[in-house]
Amino acid sequence: MHIELVTETYPPDVNGVALTVQSLEQGLRGLGHAVGVVRPEREEDGPRPDPMLMLVEGAPIPRYPGLRFGLPAGRRLLARWQAQRTDAGYIATEGPLGWSALRACRQLGIPVATGFHTRFDDYVGRYGAGFLSPWVFAWLRRFHNRADATLVPTAELRDQLAQQGFRQVAHLARWGAAEGAPVLVHVGRIAPEKNLPLAVRAYRELQKQRPDARFVWVGDGPARAGLQAANPDFLFAGVLRGEDLARHFASADLFCFPSLSETFGNVTLEAMASGIATVAFDYGAAREHLRNGLHGAAVDFGDEAGFVKALVATATGDGLRHQGEAARLAVHHLHPDQVARDFALLLDGLGGRREQAA
User: Residues 115-131: what's their mean pLDDT?
Assistant: First the structure.
């Protein structure tokens, strides 16, 4: 298929919409589709010979330095899609560019989906204009109901919007994964010492049973460029911290951690605390807290064949969600506040230990 993605934000912008659109673009291309992107131009943009990229004029977004919204580009979009017919369009944002793209798709009879990513009706209240919230919500509903489908990231939001007059609402999980598809995540430095070829091999084995699976990589490092070039279907989110990192953890189903070079491996505990099943080698943090078959899989150190087998079995098993919840409960006592308290108690007791030793 030839698919056109229309968005008013795109990396290097750092926000959920930008990363989602980039992930969709990479995933679609990895599946062999032709993908065009329409977005606002930036000052740093150089010559763009790529015919699949269309840059439009933009303007700064108030209170969001560095971000821009796209100005209407209806005539240019009509000319582009008349010259090279697209099979479908996806409009990620509801700004002026999005509205003009929606009108162009309808005029040309191009199937089009929109993405409901941002609660602008909630935002206006947070900026002191709550009286506008009903009007903004009606405006959003009018926009999305002109599309053939509105894609949302959770089943809960799908049901809420359907009850409030949104038509043709469809649940599409983050990163373009279909509902129920297993999503793997690797968080950490993307470097040779992390044993990443094993993660790739395990995922490819999983795909033989679940071709709809997705693999999301959070982090950066010297091996990223090669890994990304060799695996165009992988989704790379870059370095994330705080709430963004927490959302990526919580949106996945299974944490894949093939490293054999950790002193402890705090990221294993972070994954378990996020409520996702974990597959790791049985040492360090995994040895201390990960119980094989209960929280995922703890594989004998260095047993790469066992790792592949365990990951596939965990990802395709019926108890994946239950294992994630069990993992979260298993490390609940390791909350940072509790760890700090325990640490303070340990330090407080050092003086007594010294006296006993004397």
Answer: 58
Listed in sequence order, the residues at least 6 apart from 191 whose beta carbon sits closer than 8 Å to its beta carbon are: 221, 222, 223
DSSP characters over 263-304: SS-HHHHHHHHTT-EEEEESSHHHHHHPPTTTSEEEEPTT-H
Whole-number Å distance between alpha carbons of 296 and 315: 9
| Contact residues for 185 (Cβ-Cβ < 8 A; gap 6+) | 215, 216, 217, 218, 248, 249, 252, 254, 255, 256, 271, 276
Amino acid at 205: E
d(CA 46, CA 58): 16
The predicted model scores a pTM of 0.57
DSSP annotation of 21 reads H
Is pLDDT above 70 for 40? Answer: yes
pLDDT in tens, 214-251: 999 999 899 999 998 999 889 888 888 777 788 788 88
Query: Which of 304-325 are b and which e, b meaning 16 or more Cβ less than 10 Å from the residue's Cβ?
Result: beebbebbbebbeeeebeebbe
How far is it, in rounded angstroms, from Cα 43 to Cα 31? 32
Which range among 50-64, 228-242, 295-309 shows the weakest confidence by mean pLDDT? 50-64
Query: Cβ(98)–Cβ(8) under 8 Å?
Result: yes
Judge contact between 221 and 190, C-beta under 8 A: yes
State how far the alpha carbon of 286 is from the alpha carbons of 75, 132, 325, in Å. 58, 51, 16
Nearest residue to 250 via CA among 31, 7, 16, 22 = 16
Cα dist from 224 to 266, 297, 344, whole Å: 21, 26, 39
DSSP 78: H
What is the helix (H) or strand (E) element at residue 154, kind and residue range? Answer: none
Q: In the chain, what is the straight-line distance between the N-terminal and C-terminal CA atoms, in Å?
A: 78
pLDDT above 70 covers a percentage of the chain that reads: 81
Q: Are 168 and 147 in contact (CB under 8 A)?
A: yes
Residue 30: phi and psi, rounded to 5, are: -65, -25
Dihedral (CA of 227, 25, 274, 323) sign: negative
